[in-house]
Each structure stands twice: as structure tokens, then as C-alpha cells.
Specification:
By secondary structure, this protein is of the alpha+beta class. The chain is built from 16 helices and 15 strands. It has a 6-stranded mixed sheet with strand order 9-8-12-11-10-13. Strands 3-5-4 form a 3-stranded mixed sheet, covered by helices on one side. Strands 1-2 form a two-stranded antiparallel ribbon. Helix 5 packs across helix 6, helix 9 runs parallel beside helix 13 and helix 12 crosses helix 13. The longest helix has 20 residues. The chain is globular and about 75 Å long. 38% of the residues are buried.
């Protein structure tokens, strides 16, 4: 069996200097030649598993320090930061970031801390609570193994007691927590969908909730009662200094658990693979809404049983994001104040509840990204009246991974067929866009006598 190997010259060099050893002295203790150690430190040779074991034995070395790039969100985390408009002229690509993290991970961590403290180039100052919570979610790639495992065990127990998930969850609340479930008329709960009456030991739900949303609320309440410590422990690990960000992160974990109960990991992944991630079939098979399904598809990163790395977002008619989860996709499409009006997701508002698909490629800001297959559909606010506003839910996947999707059958997935879009006008540097409504930030306007009608703005560096 071949040994697993990684390039970690910078980490090894820091360890040697901390111990006050020459290369020859350290090589002798590790049982390798000084010339080989020199090559390892210069990332010309890999650090093998055998060498790592020697480091652990000789120097009480913590192997986790070899992956310090995870502290900045890995390669994808650095790509998001470097996609900022301030670095647009540098054309930093993925290979540059890989080399940086391998050669000087400490400097990358320092850059990330300064960048995060300063905020984005949007002029908003320090990161908002929502941005801080999202950053912690993406650090985990939106997969929380402990919650998934607990949710799967709960779902299996409920199935043994009842074939109907809602009834089984309600019975769980009654037997284990002495709590009943009551559905109340909308005029009794005009402005609420869910209320916990501790005096009456009742979970009260609005009649306006669809069955899928009722089941979600039942699973959510069980999670609040049974997974409180796990959720608090995960939130404490985020080391939040912003209390609102910590609470947002906890709320995400609570909803994560509830969705995992409705769509237990192993059964859900098997269904996804068997159907080609056929979204309408998955909705009906697990009795969930489209937005719930989209959330779950961003979480499939269990070690040894990974699903496809989707991202999802919720967008209003004005192109503003109210939810966005990159998961393990590494996409930069969600890292903008508002979505690009050329993105096919906006056509979903014209198509009722029909699924709108499209192929897009990200331009500008030195992103160096590939091509993305996206699917979008409109949804109403959970529990809202029929005349309430709508959002578009978009799911996306790298085009190279989308060939077996049910929604992509018969479609051309080559980059030449993709529509170029940007990260919103203020971060997009395309010069030939007829849809532009604002000039890109950091670029001076130029005024000329050229033919009118080419673009709303002429600009240059």
C-alpha cells in the first residue's frame, strides 16, 4: 500500500526552528538524510506518513498543524477573499493560492485575519453578524457529523413507532417530553407560525403550515430539547465575539438537525444517487419542500459517503440574497452584495413553479472559476398566504459534475454554452455588459464621444 503524502515544508521548518535544531540534527532524529529533509522543507518532496509518525514520536508533534490552511477555510476560503474587487487586477488563480498555503500558511492566516477584520470592499466596515455566522458555517462546509448521526438515529427510532413521520415525532414529544402538539387557526396565531406554551406543555403550530413545514417544526422542537448541548458545544467552538452571530449560528444548527431528521443522511444520499438527484422525486419521497431540499443538498459531505457538492441561495426579485450556502462547492457566485441580473435564476419569477436551468460562467474580479450548472424555482414564504411575495431558490453545481443529473439530461454542459455573469455590478469588470446599472468599485469613469448605446457606463483603470 502506498503511503499518503503531503507537502508541508513550512510547518516542518517552523518546528525545527522552534526546537533549535539544524537540518542535520533533525534528520538524524527522524532517521532520514539531511538532503532529503532539505527537499521536504522546500516542498520538493512530500512529507510521508512514516515521517509524520517520526515527528509525533520525537517531538510530540500535533499533525493537525499540517493543515493550518483550514483555519482560513482552505483554498476555497482564500479564493473568496481574493475575489474582492481590490485584488481584481492581480489575476490570482487557484494554483497561486495552493502554493501560498503550502509555502507560507502562517502569512495566509495573518492575511485572512486582517481581511476579515477590515471587512469587504463594500464600504460596510466590519463583517456583519450574518457574515460571521455564514463564515463559520462554510468553515465546516455546512456538514456537522454529530448532528447528522443523532438525526439519523432519531429518524430510525421514529420509523419503528410510526410509518407517518409527523405522527412519530409528535408521539416522541408526548412520551419523552410530556409535550402535546396543537394546530391552531390562523386568526388565533395571525403573526406566528409556531409557539411554545410551557405552562400548557404544548407546541402550538399554525394551520397555515404545510405538512412538510409542520414536520420540520416538530423535528426542530425535538432538536431544541435533545441536542441543546451538542449545538452549544459546536457554537462555542466558533469562538464568536459577536453574540448575534453566535445565535444565528445556533439557529442554523437547530434547523440543520431538523432537516436531517426529515432527510436522514444515508437514505437520502442513496435516493439522490438512484434518481440522479431528481428534485421533484426527492421532494415527494421525503415529503419536504423545495427550499428544505435545497438546504439539505448543500450538506452531503460525510467522510466515506459524500454526495455532490451543491450550493444554494434564496434570492428576491431585486436580486438580493436572504440565504446563501456554498457548502463544499467552492463557488464564488454567492460572494456579492446582489446577484447578476444576467443569471438565469431571475427567469424563475416568470415561470411559476417550473424549474429553470442554466449554465453560467463567472467573469471578472480575477475569480478564475469554472462553469456552473444552476437550477432555480420560486417558493412562497413558509406558512404565508397565497398573495404573499415569492423568493427564488437556486441550486448550483460545477458543470463537470452535473452530467448525471436528471435536470441536466440532454443539455450541453460545455463552457462555450455558458452565459457569462459577474459578481454584481459593483464587483464586475466586464466592459461590454448592456445590463450594467453601476460602475465597478475602484474604477474611474471615462467620458468620451463614442457611439451611444454601447453600455450604460464607459470605464477604465
Amino acid at each position: 500500500m502506498s503511503e499518503t503524502s503531503i507537502l508541508a515544508g513550512a510547518a516542518l521548518r517552523r518546528l525545527r526552528k522552534r526546537e533549535g535544531l539544524t537540518q542535520a540534527a533533525m534528520a538524524e532524529r527522524l532517521g532520514i538524510s539531511a538532503s532529503y529533509l532539505n527537499l521536504i522543507e522546500r516542498n520538493r518532496r512530500p512529507l510521508t506518513a512514516r515521517t509524520v509518525l517520526g515527528l509525533v514520536d520525537e517531538f510530540d508533534f500535533d499533525p493537525r498543524t499540517l493543515t493550518q490552511d483550514e483555519a482560513v477555510g482552505g483554498i476555497d476560503g482564500m479564493r473568496r477573499r481574493l475575489a474582492d474587487a481590490r485584488f481584481a487586477d492581480l489575476a490570482i488563480d487557484r494554483e497561486d493560492i495552493v502554493e501560498w498555503l503550502a509555502a507560507a500558511p502562517q502569512s495566509a492566516v495573518a492575511f485572512a485575519r486582517l481581511f476579515d477584520a477590515a471587512g469587504q470592499a463594500s464600504g460596510d466596515g466590519a463583517p456583519t453578524s450574518e457574515q460571521l455566522a455564514r463564515r463559520e458555517i462554510e468553515r465546516w462546509r455546512n456538514h456537522f457529523a454529530d448532528l447528522d448521526q443523532a438525526a439519523e438515529e432519531l429518524a430510525d427510532e421514529v420509523r419503528l413507532s410510526s410509518q407517518d413521520l409527523g405522527q412519530g415525532l409528535a408521539e416522541r414529544l408526548r412520551q419523552r417530553h410530556q409535550m402535546s402538539v396543537r394546530i391552531l387557526p390562523s386568526d388565533v396565531m395571525p403573526d406566528r407560525l409556531r409557539r411554545l406554551d410551557l405552562h400548557a406543555r404544548q407546541l402550538q403550530l399554525s394551520e397555515m403550515l404545510l405538512p412538510a413545514s409542520r414536520n420540520f417544526q416538530l423535528a426542530l422542537q425535538i432538536g431544541l430539547l435533545e441536542q441543546r448541548e451538542t449545538i452549544r458545544s459546536l457554537a462555542a467552538g466558533g469562538d464568536f465575539t459577536d453574540e448575534a452571530a453566535r445565535r444565528l449560528f445556533e439557529r442554523h444548527l437547530q434547523a440543520y438537525f431538523a432537516a436531517a431528521v426529515l432527510m436522514p443522511y444515508d437514505r437520502f444520499v442513496r435516493a439522490c444517487e438512484a434518481t440522479g438527484y431528481d428534485l421533484p422525486i426527492l421532494e415527494r419521497r421525503f415529503n419536504v419542500g423545495f427550499e428544505q431540499l435545497a438546504h439539505r443538498l448543500t450538506t452531503l459531505q460525510r467522510v466515506g459517503r459524500r454526495g455532490l457538492p451543491f450550493f444554494m441561495a434564496r434570492i428576491d426579485r431585486a436580486g438580493q440574497f436572504s440565504k446563501r450556502y456554498a457548502g463544499a462547492s467552492g463557488t464564488l457566485l454567492l460572494d456579492a452584495p446582489a446577484s447578476c441580473p444576467l443569471w438565469t435564476v431571475h427567469r424563475a419569477f416568470e415561470q411559476g413553479h417550473a424549474l429553470v436551468t442554466g449554465l453560467v460562467t463567472l467573469e471578472g474580479s480575477g475569480a478564475g472559476q469554472g462553469t456552473w450548472f444552476t437550477m432555480a424555482r420560486t417558493v412562497a414564504v413558509s406558512g404565508a398566504r397565497p398573495d404573499a411575495g415569492q423568493f427564488a431558490i437556486v441550486l448550483g453545481l460545477e458543470a463537470s459534475l452535473a452530467k448525471n443529473l436528471a435536470a441536466a439530461r440532454g443539455l450541453a454542459l460545455e463552457e462555450s454554452a455558458a452565459a457569462p455573469i459577474g459578481l454584481g455590478c459593483v464587483q464586475c469588470h466586464r466592459t461590454d455588459c448592456r445590463q450594467r446599472s453601476l460602475p465597478p468599485r475602484g474604477v474611474a469613469l471615462q467620458f468620451s464621444e463614442r457611439e451611444r448605446g454601447l453600455t450604460p457606463f464607459d470605464f477604465g483603470v
